[in-house]
Amino acid sequence: MVRRPLGNHHDGPDTLLVTSDTTQTDPMAAQTERLQELIGHARVVLWDFDGPICRLFAGHSAEGVATDLVDWLEGRGLHDLLTEDERDTEDPHAVLRAVDRRHPASDLVVEVEERLTQEELRAVPKAQPTPYADPLIRTWKAVGARLAIATNNSPKVVHAYLTGRGLLDCFLPHIYGRTQDLQYLKPHPHYLNRALTAMGVAPTGALFIGDTPTDCEAARQAGVPFLGYARNEHKEKLLQVAGATDIVGSLEPLLEALRG
């Protein structure tokens, strides 16, 4: 059976439905059935952080952070270290990756990674919780699932945000994120594999919720079922191109399926 996200798109949380290629089935019923299937197989639920749990840079521009990192490098006489496209990027992780490609495991990488971590920490107070994420996390924990985070953000940032939301105990000690060893950033499956090993679960007994093509690829390499979260049509298309077959535009149907 091939599963695909369906239309009725608009700018809002409920933009996608997970359903089958069965024309006679009510789409909402098919969505609920598929989500319950994913839930039923998941002894462990792995979460990406920025996206499914919150919008980390909702009030602290990621583009501004990327620009600051580029300016800092140029201030050190390293203008030619980045290509023109890399200097114009809106993604601070792209700057970090670029530095690591040219100077892997160097003091410069350590400095840039630390600067990014501090910018992420500054973003935490203005981070915007993803709708329905908090009750979904608490409900999943309450019904006996074990939860972990696998993210390209700093674990310090994850701890700070979850502490502020009263959610840290739902995940501890299983928070796996960026270190100064940048070869393991997703799409490398390292963070997912660490979580699976630590929690003693086979890949097929887990579910990974992410919102980017790199999340989808990391799940594929780890052998973990993947549920894409796409808060808008652009993110949906990126996930579809990456090969995601189960996508939701809101976490509300997942919460309802779990409660059901």
Features:
alpha/beta, two-stranded antiparallel sheet, 260 residues, disordered N terminus, six-stranded parallel beta sheet, 48% helix, 12 helices
Describe this entry's structure for a reader.
With about 260 residues, the chain is an alpha/beta fold. Helices cover about 50% and strands about 10% of the residues. It has helices spanning about 25-40, 60-75, 85, 90-100, 105-125, 135-140, 155-165, 170, 190-200, 215-220, 235-240, 250-260; strands spanning about 5, 20, 45, 55, 130, 145-150, 175, 205-210, 225-230, 245-250. The strands form 3 sheets. Strands 7-6-3-8-9-10 form a 6-stranded parallel β-sheet, with helices on both faces. The chain has a two-stranded antiparallel ribbon with strand order 1-2. Strands 4-5 form a two-stranded antiparallel ribbon. The chain is globular, with a radius of gyration of 19 Å.
Sheet with the most strands: spatial strand order: 7-6-3-8-9-10
User: What general form does the structure show?
Assistant: globular
**What integer is the average pLDDT?**
90
Secondary-structure element string: EEHEEHHHHEHEHHEHEHEHEH
Structural classification? alpha/beta
Give the helix proportion (percent range).
40-55%
- The residue ranges in which pLDDT falls below 50 over 5 or more consecutive positions are 1-24
Number of H- or I-type helical stretches = 12
Major sheet description: 6 strands, parallel
The counted number of beta strands is 10
Q: Please compute the radius of gyration using only Cα atoms.
A: 19 Å
